[in-house]
Design goal:
Helices cover 41% and strands 18% of the residues. By secondary structure, the protein is of the alpha/beta class. Helix 7 packs parallel to helix 9, helix 10 crosses helix 12 and helix 14 packs parallel to helix 15. The structure holds 5-hydroxymethyl-3,4-dihydroxypiperidine.
Length: 439
């Protein structure tokens, strides 16, 4: 029998997720200043087809229509992020017009009975702060604390669910080591420093949150992957254990246990890298939940030539347009693992797929996305039945949007966006979801 909403606990929430730079557009309006992604996307060679978020989904002007769509589908919640450079000028001057936008957005959501979940940082550091050292600046955590306090003070009376950072692994390792994301550096030492400062920023934000929003909940969202050795040999097996700690533990363990994972830390010693061990008190401020972004598994092969000692191997499972294997069971495995290791409530804060979507006669028949979502919903339900304290599920993403280095070439939305007209079309997956939520 097909899965339906009433199979889930009564207080379980279903929502969709987005991020500011991916949807808002209006990059020069109402006092918004550039972020690292504005500069990166305008630099030749960084983003496919030199696309950028200047207009994106024009959500800044169309948020009312977008909320109507959420309402029509029957969604309970909406996860979005705040653009730091829209609300603070030069790192510290309050921009009332930018704050107003988020006030209006939150009010409109509440008016429609949609619960807001806010992410404070989804990769778009103000460029002004980048010029002051960005995530390598030891003071960046304090800038973040002030920014967080401003947002808590402005919206905390109405918004009770908060996420400090989205996928700090990507901000640090894609941004500072692989260079594929802003700011595009390629230095492994820098990546670890950025990672540490991101964790510090998270901790400072949690601390001020407790003082400002007494009745709210706060957590951090990490991307997790099921890590599997590429081959049945000792080297791949051992390196897969390290990679698992590194990918799935580096931003979890410090937050809960106040220390970095042991084996992965050993790997760093081997590389001659020194990671600061102070600041652990601030990093491990108690949180209320973990946000889980799950998309796929990674097949890992030992690679002595890579500073992190591994490389990815292509798997044999069917893949999405991102080239990511479709592996629903990995979601179950990761939820179980996180539950057992950390014992915190969990939200799936992102899950979804990029598909070969085509708008034909105003219809997008994304049956593959329905199949993907259904299979992942089943695994989430199984996890709940087996004791995981999973409280909600946010589909990535509400509508097609700017997919970072891939530009607009990848469509993850359950709503199709015609970028020329900015017209939105509910894909078959959105209609399926509407039906699912009604039962
Ligand atoms: O689009 C991104 C999102 O911003 C962060 N998590 C992964 C998604 C798909 O790549």
């Amino acid at each position: 029998m097909a899965i339906k909403r009433s199979d889930f606990p009564e207080d379980f929430i279903f929502g969709t997720a987005t991020a500011a730079y991916q949807i808002e557009g209006a990059v020069n309006e109402d006092g918004r200043e550039p972020s690292i992604w504005d500069v990166f996307s305008h630099t030749p060679g960084k983003v496919k087809n030199m696309e950028n978020g200047d207009i994106a989904c024009d959500h800044y002007h169309r948020y009312i229509e977008d909320i109507e769509i959420m309402k029509e589908i029957g969604l309970d919640a909406y996860r979005f992020s705040i653009s730091w450079s829209r609300v603070l000028s030069k790192g510290k001057i309050k921009n009332e017009k930018g704050l107003d936008f988020y006030n209006r957005l939150v009010d409109e959501l509440l008016k429609n009975n949609i619960t807001p979940f806010i992410t404070l940082y989804h990769w778009d550091l103000p460029y002004y702060l980048y010029e002051k050292g960005g995530w390598l600046n030891p003071d960046i955590a304090l800038y973040f604390q002030d920014y967080a306090a401003l947002i808590f003070e402005t919206l905390g009376d109405r918004v009770k669910n908060w996420i400090t950072l989205n996928e700090p692994w990507c901000s640090s390792f894609l941004g500072y080591f692989m260079g594929t994301h802003a700011p595009g550096h390629k230095n492994i030492n820098e990546a670890f420093i950025a990672a540490h400062n991101l964790l510090k920023a998270h901790g400072h934000a949690v601390k001020v949150f407790r003082e400002i929003v007494k009745d709210g909940k706060i957590g951090i969202t990490n991307v997790v992957s099921k890590i599997e050795p590429a081959q049945e040999n000792e080297e791949d097996f051992q390196v897969a254990i390290l990679v698992d700690e590194f990918v799935n533990g580096w931003f979890h363990d410090p937050v809960v246990f106040g220390k970095y994972p042991e084996n992965a830390k050993g790997l760093l010693k081997q590389l001659g890298l020194k990671i600061p061990e102070d600041d652990m008190d601030i990093i491990s401020q108690p949180i209320d939940f973990f946000g889980v972004n799950y998309y796929s598994r990674q097949l890992i092969k030992y690679d002595p030539y890579n500073p992190l000692m591994y490389k990815h191997v292509e798997g044999e499972l069917p893949k999405t347009e991102m080239g990511w294997e479709i592996y629903p069971k990995g979601l179950y495995d990761m939820l179980k693992k996180l539950h057992q290791r950390y014992g915190l409530p969990l939200y799936i804060t992102e899950n979804g797929m990029a598909g070969p979507d085509k708008l034909i006669n105003n219809i997008v028949n994304d049956h593959y996305r329905i199949d993907y979502l259904e299979k992942h919903f089943q695994q989430a339900l199984l996890a709940i039945k087996n004791g995981v304290n999973l409280k909600g599920y946010f589909i990535w993403t509400l509508m097609d949007n700017f997919e970072w280095a891939e530009g607009y070439s990848k469509r993850f939305g359950i709503v199709y966006v015609d970028y020329k007209t900015q017209k939105r079309y509910l894909k078959k997956s959105a209609l399926w979801l509407k039906e699912f939520l009604s039962k």
